[in-house]
Structure formats: C-alpha cells, structure tokens
Amino acid sequence: MKLEMGSIQVSLLMLFSAMVFAVLAASPAPGGDNSTDSFWLLRIKSELLDPLGVLDSWSPGAHMCNWNGLTCSHEQSHVVGLNLSNSGLSGSVSPELWHLTSLETLDLSSNFLTGSIPSELGKLQNLKILLLYSNFISGKIPEEIFSLKKLLVLRIGDNQLSGEITPSIGNLTELTVLGLASCLFNGSIPVEIGKLKHLVSLDLQKNSLSGLIPDELRGCKRLQNFAASGNRLEGEIPASMGSLKSLQVLNLANNSLSGAIPVKLSHLSNLKYLNLLGNKLSGQIPLELNHLVQLEKLDLSVNSLSGPISLFSAQLKNLETLVLSNNFLTGSIPSNFCLQNSNLQQLFLHQNNLSGKFPLELLNCSSLQQLDLSDNNFEGELPSSIDKLENLTDLKLNTNSFSGKLPPEIGNMSKLVNVYLFDNMITGKPPLEIGKLKRLSALYLYDNQMSGRIPVELTNCTSITEIDFFGNHLTGSIPPTIGKLKNLIILQLRQNDLSGPIPPSLGYCRKLQILALADNKLSGTLPPTFRFLSELYKVTLYNNSFEGPLPSSLFLLKNLQIINFSHNRFSGSISPLLGSNSLTALDLTNNSFSGPIPPRLTMSRNLSRLRLAQNHLIGDIPNEFVELTELRFLDLSFNNLTGDVAAQLSNCRKLEHLLLNNNQLTGTMPSWLGRFEELGELDFSSNNFHGEIPAQLGNCSKLLKLSLHSNNYSGKIPQEIGNLTSLNVLNLHRNNLSGFIPSKLQECEKLFELRLAENCLTGSIPPELGRLTELQVILDLSKNSLSGEIPSSLGNLVKLERLNLSFNHLQGEVPFSLAKLTSLHMLNLSYNDLRGQLPSTFSGFPLSSFIGNNKLCGPPLTSCLGSGDQEKKSLSNAGVAGIIAAIVFSSTVICLTMLYIMVRMWRNWRRVTIQSLDGGGTEQTREEEKWVCGDEKRKNGEYWKVNSMAKVPSLDDQISKTCIFPFKMDT
C-alpha cells in the first residue's frame, strides 16, 4: 500500500513539473515573444559570460536596434548583422542563432568561445559573412555550413577545428574569402576548391594538410591571395599556377615541395609577395623571375637551390626584400646586381657557398638597411668605401674569411645598430672611430685576430648593450670609463691578453647581466662597486690572477645564477657569493678559499653544479646538502674535509659526477649510492674509507668511472661490478681487497683502464680478462698474491699500452700470444716465478721489466743457449729439430774424418815398418808425439788442433784435459 502511494506521488510530481515547464516555455520572455529576434537574442545572452559588460545594453527596456553590436533592417524589425568581435566573451556559439533568419553578417571572432560550430547555422540562408576565427572552437566543420549559397566570406581559422576539408566546399560558389588557417585540418586540399570562381583569398596556413597542390586551383581565376604555408604539402609546384594572373601573394613556405621552381611563375605579373622558403626545391633560380616587376618581397631560403645568383634589382625595381639564405648557391654576387635607383632594403644571403671579395656592387644599394653575407666563403679586406651604405642598420659578415684591418670609415655609418664580424681573420686594432656610432647596440668581433687595446672611445657608444671580443689578442687594460655604458647587458672579453684590475666604474653598468672576463691576465681584487650590479646573473673570471678575500658586499647580488671564479688566488670565505638563492652553478676550483662549507649554500635549491675542489676547506659536508635534490655535479676533491657521507648526499639522486677524492673523509661507502641511476663518475680515492665495496654499486648502470684507490677497503671485489657495462675506468688499487678477481669483469667490455694493484688478491688471473679488448691505458694487477700462469688470452688486448703484473707469484712460461701486444710501451713482469724464453718482441723493454724471474731467458736477458737443461726445455719444436739435424750432420763428418785418419795411420804404419826394416827410428818418435795427451803437450807449448767440424758441440762441454782420441797408436 505504501509503495502504491509513493508511485502516485512521484507521478503527480512529474506531471506538475511538466506543466510548469510548458507554461514557462510558452510564456514570452521579457522583451518580446518567441517570434521576435529580441527574444532569441536575450536567450543567447543568457548563455554567454560577459566579463567586460559588452552586452549590458541588451535589455528588454530598450529597443534591440539600440543594443550594442547589432545592425537592424530598414524597418527595424529584424537583425541583419551581429558583430561582437573581440568582446572577451566566453561560452559557446549558440544554436539559437538560427532563429535570426534575416541575419546576413555574424561576427564572433577573437573571443574565448569553446564547443563546436552548431549545425543549425546552416539554416541561416541569408548569411553572407561568417566570422568565427580566433576562438577555441573544436570539432569538424558541419556539412550544413556548405549549404549557405549566399555565403561570401567564411573565416573560421585560428581555432581547434579538425578533420578534412570535404568536397562540399565546392558548393559555396559565391565565396570570395575562405580562411581556414591555424587549425588542425588534415587530408588533402580538395580539388573542388577549383569551382570557387569568385574566390579572391584562400588561406590554408598552419594546418596538417598533405598531398599535392591540386592543378584544379587554376579555375580560381580571380585569386589574389593563396597562402598554404606550414603544412605537409609535397610534390612539385603546379606550373598551371602561372595562369593565375591576378595573384599578388603566393605563400607556400615550410612544406615538403620538391623539384624546380616553375618558370611559368614569371607570368604572374601582379605578384608582390613570393615565399617558398623551407621546402625541398632544387635546381637553379630561374632567370625569368626577373620579369616579376611588381615583386616587393622574395624568399627562397632554406631549400636546395644551386648555381649562381641570377636576380638583379636593376629589373626588380620594386624589390625591397630578397632572402636566398640556406641554399647551395655558388659564385660571386653579379656586378650588375644593384643600381643607384634600387629600392632594396633587406638582402639576406647567409649560409651559402658564395665566394670572392666583398662585393663592391652592393655599395650601389644605398637604400640597404640590413645586409647579411654570413656563413659563406668571402675573403679579402673590407672596402674603405663601405660607408656608402649610409642607411645600413645591420651588418652581418660573420663566419667568412675576411682579413685585414677593420676600416675606420665604419665610424661614418651613423645608423648602424648591429655589427656582426665574428669568426673571420680580421687583424689590427679596433678602430677608434667605432666610438662615433651613437646608435650601436651589438658589437660582435669575437674569434678574430685583433690586437692592441680596447679603445676608450668605445665607451662613447652609450646605446650599446652587447660587446663580445672573445678569442682575440687584445692587450692592455679594460677601459677605466667602461662605467659610461649604462645600457650594457653583456660584456664578453674572455680569452684575450688583458691585464690590470677590473675598473671600479664597471659597477655602474647597472644593467649588466653577463660578465665574462675569463682566460686573461687580469689581477687585483674585486672592486666593492660590484655590489651595484644587481642584475648580474652570470659572471666568469676563471684563469686569471685575481686575489684576496671577496668583498662582503657581493652578498647583495641576489640574481646570481652562474659563478665561475676557478683558477685564481682568491682567499677567505666563500660566503659573500651566497647571497642569491638562485644559484645553478658555482665553480671555485683551484683557489685558496678556507673555512667550512657554509650551510647557506643549500638555500639555492636549483643548484646543479658545485665545484669547490683544490682549496683549503675544512670540516664536514653540511647535513643540509640533503636538500640539493637538483645537484648533478659535485666536486669537493683536494680539500681537508672530514667526517663521513652517510646521509648528507642521500637525496641527490640526480648526481652524475661525485668527486670526493683527496680529503680525510672516513666511514664506509654508503649502499644508497646504488640508487643513483644517473651516476657517471664516482671518485672516493685517497681518503680513509673502510669496509666493503657495496654490491649495490652494480645498479649504477651509467657509471663510466669508478675510482676508490688509496683507501682501506677490504673484502672481495663484488661480482656485481660486472653489471657496469658502460664502465671505462676501474681503479681499486692500494686497498686491502682480497679474494679472486671476479671473472664477471669480462662484462665491462668498454673498460680502457683497469687498476687492481697493491691489494691482497689471490687465485689466478681470469682468462676472461682477455675479452676486454678496449683496454688501452693500463692493466695493472701488480703487488698482489696472484698465482698460476699468465693467460694466453691477454694477447687479445692489442690496444693495451701498459701492462703490469709484477710482484705476484705467477708461474709458467710467458705466452707467446703476448707478442701481439704491439701497442705496449710499458711492461713489467718482474718478481714472479716465470720461466722459459721471452717473445722476441719484448727485446726492446729494459731488464727491470723481467728482473726477479731467474728462469727467464732471451733478449733482453741472457741467451737461452748454454743456460742448462731448463733452457733446453724452453726451446721451440723448430729449435729442437735444428739441433738434431746439426748432430746428424756433425756425426757424419766425424765418421768420414775418422775413416780418413785410419787410412792415414795404416799408411804410416806401413811406412814405419818399412823404415824400421831399413834401420830408421826418427819418424816413429815424431808420430808418437802427435798423439800424446794434452797435458804433456802443454809442457812444450803445443796443442792438438782439430777442425771444428770434427767436434759435436755440447751445451755442457768445458775445455777438456784429455785428447780428442785418448789412445796412442801402437807401432
């Protein structure tokens, strides 16, 4: 029963609501009934936000024809024009607008309207002008819009409209202006646009249109303005565009158009503006373009055009701007390029391959205001008559090969504002006449060969904002009147030979933002007037001879972001430099700063580079460093810092370089370093760290250098070090590390320096080290307790320059594969238990490289011949075969000799026998004397001599005291 009653109540409530709504809908709004335009206009007003009160006059108490932004018909009964352009309105375009059936003009442009274009606007069949551009309208163009047969102007660009431009656009046959620029339209340009015979302006710029430019566009015979720049159009420019005789503006810049520039474009006799920059056009510039006598601006830059310049202001008499930059044009500027009556004001030819001397022909272009010949191959001296260009404001001749002195006549060019002459070979002194250029704003003379003093007259150019003399040979001091340059923003004098102090007047250049005086011979202390440089955000004074403590007033410089005072003689505290909380880089390397690191430094939360190395800083690393979360480069090396690094740096997760070496830091290496994913360089060497190397370091996958030498680390080398596949340098020498060398080091394939010396490592040298083929600087395993043989795989390290395996317990022979190490210029195998013959390529190393290995032989050691059985064993197979062959040959010779002697003996025996029969005895005595043993012959000073061929050489033979044949012939 309760459910039924509830249902009845709900039904009654809904019925009552519907009745109320019907009554309200049927009731006329204040200002008229729903058949009047005023009714619907008030409805439209209610849907808009009007912060500027533009619609305040829209009130029922006033006639609508007196309302702001409205135009009424003659009988003042209908609205024919609604113009609320640039009124600050927000909301959406109301569909209720279709009720204004007499509307001919609707302009809601330049507001903050959102939403989509309502399809109901297609019902406004009297509409002639629809302007919705410069809003935030999105979505597609409703097809209903293309049914507005009377539409003359459709401008809906500069919105967020998307989709394709449909072929239905061809239905707007009365259209004269079509503006669809700066949206998100894609697809191709529909060929149906060619049906718009009355079209005067077509603007399709800054969309994502692709495909070809339709040839059908030639049907728009009245077209005066065609702009399709900033799309993705491709293919060639249709030659048929030359038939659009009314065309005055053609802008196809920043597409992907290719091929040659059509010669038929020269038929566009009314063309005033031609822009084809930023495409892929090639070939030469057509000579026929000189027929475009109405042309005022021509831009063919950023293409691939080649050949000579073939455009002449003598024919293009109305030409004001010519831009041919960023091409491959060659040759020189034609001699008839310019005439006295030329209107040329801007000539940009930079970044081509133009050559020759400064084109004197340009001096006839007296109307020139901007001249850019930079990034070419021009050479020779600048002409003294350059002051003929009396209207020139910008002279850009940088990055050429101009030489000689800067002509003093440049001081006569009174309208000069910007002078770019950097990266040439200009010599001599900066002319004093530069001081006459009262309008000069930027003077860039860097990267030349200028010498002499900076002229004091330069300080008369009180409008100057930028001076850059970097990389010259300027001498003398900075002009003492530099403070006259009240508008100076940049002063770049780096890398010269300037000397003397910084003038105190520099402090009066109160607008100065960048001061670069590095790489000079400047000296003295910083003037107290520095405190007035309140706009200064970058100052570099490195590589000079500045000295003394910093003025405390520097603390007032609150905008400093980059400071580099490195390689000077500053002393005292660094606190005066810490007044700014905006520091991003501070480099004070190699000075004499002392005291602790001020915690105030950490107020600069965006600090990314901090280098305080090679000073006399003491104390702990401040705990406040935990706040420097943006730090990427930290170098505190070569100081007297103490304490540990347990927590101060744990939040610096972006660190790429962490250098704490050569201090007195203690404690263990924190395992949280393994969370520093960006770490590329870690140097904790020459401190008092102890404990084990944490395995978590293996997580630092970007690590390039790991240097922990000269500490007290113990334990094993973690296998996880092998995960550091980007590692270039691994230096762990002079610690107390023990255990084996991990074979997983083979994974560090990019290592070019490996030092594990002076530890307590045991076991053999892993043959896997032979896979580190990028090792070049050194492989040092010396002063450990390594044993076993030298792996032959080390012969694969063909780039290695230094190898040190000394002071170990290595055994066996030196692998002949090491002979392949032709890049070695230092080798130390001393004090091991090596034996055998050295590779012949080692003969050039000193004896000290092999000392302490008593069983090694071969150059530069003693010869392996005559060195005992051990040396025999070290002979190669070829050597053994040679010895056997020598023995066989010698034995054969001995046998033949003995046979000869026996025959002679037999003959002598017969002769003695015969003689004895004759009674002779003298010969017998002489024969016997020939065969007496050596000891008896020595008494008489005689030795038995035998041809060396008759004796088999023995490595162990000494001089024998017995006869060769130890018997006496019996007669």
Explained architecture:
The protein is mostly beta strands. Helix content is 10%, strand content 23%. It contains six helices and 65 strands. The protein has a 33-stranded mixed β-sheet, with no helix packed on it. Strands 13-15-17-19-21-23-25-27-29-31-33-35 form a twelve-stranded parallel β-sheet, with no helix packed on it. The chain has a seven-stranded parallel β-sheet with strand order 37-39-41-43-45-47-49, with no helix packed on it. It is elongated. The chain starts with a helix and ends in a 32-residue tail after the last helix.
Q: Summarize the biggest pleated sheet.
A: 33 strands, mixed
* Radius of gyration, in angstroms, nearest whole number: 48 Å
Overall number of strands: 65
Number of helices: 6
Poorly predicted regions: 1-32, 867-884, 906-971
- Net shape: elongated
Helix proportion range: under 10%
Residue-averaged pLDDT, rounded? 87
Distance between the termini: 165 Å
Structural class: mainly beta
Strand content: 15-25%
Short overview:
With 971 residues, the chain is mainly β. 10% of the residues lie in helices and 23% in strands.
Key features?
6 helices; mainly beta; single chain; twelve-stranded parallel sheet; 971 residues; disordered N terminus; 10% helix; elongated; disordered C terminus; 65 strands; 33-stranded mixed sheet
Q: Mind sketching the topology for me?
A:
Layout: H1 2-26, H2 37-46, E1 70-72, E2 79-83, E3 90-92, E4 105-107, E5 112-114, E6 129-131, E7 138-139, E8 153-155, E9 160-164, E10 177-179, E11 184-186, E12 201-203, E13 210-211, E14 225-227, E15 232-235, E16 249-251, E17 256-259, E18 273-275, E19 280-284, E20 297-299, E21 304-307, E22 321-323, E23 328-331, E24 346-348, E25 353-357, E26 370-372, E27 377-381, E28 394-396, E29 401-405, E30 418-420, E31 425-428, E32 442-444, E33 449-453, E34 466-468, E35 473-475, E36 490-492, E37 499-500, E38 514-516, E39 521-524, E40 538-540, E41 545-549, E42 562-564, E43 569-572, E44 585-587, E45 592-596, E46 609-611, E47 616-619, E48 633-635, E49 640-641, E50 657-659, E51 681-683, E52 690-692, E53 705-707, E54 712-716, E55 729-731, E56 736-739, E57 753-755, E58 760-761, E59 778-780, E60 787-789, E61 802-804, E62 809-813, E63 826-828, E64 833-837, E65 855-857, H3 869-873, H4 877-918, H5 922-930, H6 934-939
Parallel strand pairs: 2-4, 3-5, 4-6, 6-8, 7-9, 8-10, 9-11, 10-12, 12-14, 13-15, 14-16, 15-17, 16-18, 17-19, 18-20, 19-21, 20-22, 21-23, 22-24, 23-25, 24-26, 25-27, 26-28, 27-29, 28-30, 29-31, 30-32, 31-33, 32-34, 33-35, 34-36, 36-38, 37-39, 38-40, 39-41, 40-42, 41-43, 42-44, 43-45, 44-46, ...
Antiparallel strand pairs: 1-2
